[in-house]
Design a protein that fits this description.
It is a single chain. The chain is an alpha/beta fold. The protein folds into two domains: about 1-150 and about 345-365 and about 375-380, ATPase, nucleotide binding domain (Nucleotidyltransferase, domain 5); about 155-340, ATPase, nucleotide binding domain (Nucleotidyltransferase, domain 5, 2-Layer Sandwich), CATH 3.30.420. It is about 35% helix and about 20% strand. The protein has helices at about 45-55, 60-80, 125-130, 140-145, 155-160, 205-215, 225-230, 235-240, 245, 260-270, 280-300, 320-330, 345-360, 365-370; strands at about 1-10, 15-25, 30-40, 90-100, 115-120, 135, 170-175, 175-185, 195-200, 305-310, 330-335, 380. The strands form two sheets. Strands 1, 2, 3, 4, 5, 6 and 12 form a seven-stranded mixed sheet that branches. A hairpin with a 6-residue loop joins β1 and β2 (about 15-25). The two termini are about 20 Å apart. It catalyses: 1,6-anhydro-N-acetyl-beta-muramate + ATP + H2O = N-acetyl-D-muramate 6-phosphate + ADP + H(+). This is Anhydro-N-acetylmuramic acid kinase. One of its GO terms (biological process) is peptidoglycan turnover. One of its GO terms (molecular function) is kinase activity.
């Protein structure tokens, strides 16, 4: 058994999710027990700095280095704090903080390499130095180097922990960005049939809208209550669904570069002609998240899932969950909590598993999900 810390901060930049887990077994046949969990908010000034960089603000190289260090220090502190009661971690898997993500561009030309690029700050060597614990970080780079999107990286973990012998499942994470893992029955050549990609906006647009509509007093719509009090503007949803990203077949990945500050500004502008109040606008944005997920399922899945398991912060948005259930009809919509995997910390748990696999010599990516040319070991290892 190995005690591992998984560290994750997503596109919502809410804070650092830390999961302390015990892992045993090999490759897909592993057991994971969640020992401790906690979310450590970023200091407000650091969060604002990260968000401004994600929005495209130019910074100098000294400022860049300072930001990288500040994030690493915050991640290291999270790793130390999660062990206050339960000690003994010998490994950290740190996703870091994504500040830029560019998927592979188009078709490769004769003299050009059109690989993707993804940048996560919070460098592993500093986390190792501050904690004294071997750290695996920079997980996306190896998949990108062999032609993959570098995202999503959780499908292989989902396959190991949530596959079922008789049930077709979709694991739908709703963080800032939504991503899906389609898992067929665990029989035959099932692993090669898994699919995964980013479905589009999760909470990113909703959180930005709530912050603006509340004059900065709120950062998210708790339980979706504000949106639930409004009316959906279907013509606007239909217009937004024509975005090229939704139409593009997988493999595909995205981030705040596409569904961030510029896009929410566009959404506000396009909503003006419909004279929506704040609740109506949020109801319509929520419907975009729900409808875009279902659109991806109907157009790109091999089969309709029998069950959808939600995770991530959006899984706690009761209104969003209700809209997904309504749109999916007979498909059961629940959360990973009901199947033994904490919905709030699943992503942090996943990077603990990916670090464990890196040390174990097992590949972490699924080419059928990321589009990579081959399976590879994920992450750079920094020994204590």
């Amino acid at each position: 058994m190995t005690r591992v810390i998984g560290l994750m901060s997503g596109t919502s930049v809410d804070g650092i999710d830390a999961a302390l887990v015990d892992i045993s077994g090999q490759d897909l046949d592993i057991k994971v027990e969640l020992v401790e969990k906690a979310t450590y908010p970023y200091p407000s000034a650091l969060r604002e700095r990260i968000l401004s960089v994600c929005a495209g603000e130019a910074i100098s190289m000294p400022e860049f280095a300072q930001l990288d260090d500040a994030i690493a220090i915050a991640f290291a502190e999270a790793a130390v704090n999660i062990q206050t009661v339960h000690e003994g971690a010998s490994l950290i898997g740190s996703h870091g903080q994504t500040v830029f993500h560019r998927p592979p561009i188009g078709v490769e030309e004769a003299n050009e390499v059109n690989l993707g690029y993804s940048l996560q700050l919070g460098r592993g060597p500093l986390i190792t130095a501050l904690t004294g614990i071997t750290t695996v970080s920079n997980f996306r780079a190896a998949d990108i180097a062999v032609g993959g999107q570098g995202a999503p990286l959780v499908p292989r973990v989902d396959a190991a922990l949530l596959a079922h012998p008789n049930e077709i499942r979709c694991i739908q994470n709703i963080g800032g960005i939504g991503n899906v893992t389609y898992i067929p029955n665990r029989s035959g050549d099932w692993l090669s049939q898994i699919r995964g990609w980013d479905t589009g906006p999760g909470n990113s647009l909703l959180d930005l809208a709530v912050h603006q509509l509340s004059d900065g007093t709120k950062n998210y719509d708790e339980n979706g209550e504000w949106a639930a009090s409004g009316k959906i503007c279907q013509p606007l949803v239909d217009k937004w669904l024509k975005h090229p990203y939704f139409q593009a077949p997988p493999p595909k990945s995205t981030g705040r570069e596409l569904f961030g500050f510029d896009y929410i500004t566009q959404c506000f502008d396009e909503a003006k002609e419909y004279q929506l109040n704040a609740a109506d606008f949020l109801a319509t944005l929520t419907e975009l998240t729900a409808t875009s997920i279902v659109y991806n399922y109907r157009h790109f899945l091999p089969q309709t899932p029998q069950r959808v398991l939600l995770c991530g912060g959006g899984s706690r948005n009761l209104y969003l969950k209700q809209r997904l259930q309504a749109l999916l009809g007979s498909t059961s919509v629940t959360t990973t909590d009901e199947f033994g995997l904490n919905a709030d910390f699943k992503e942090a748990i996943a990077f603990a598993v990916l670090a464990y696999w890196r040390q174990d010599g097992s590949p972490g990516n699924l080419p059928c999900a990321t589009g990579a040319k081959q399976e590879v070991l994920l992450g750079e290892v920094f020994e204590r």
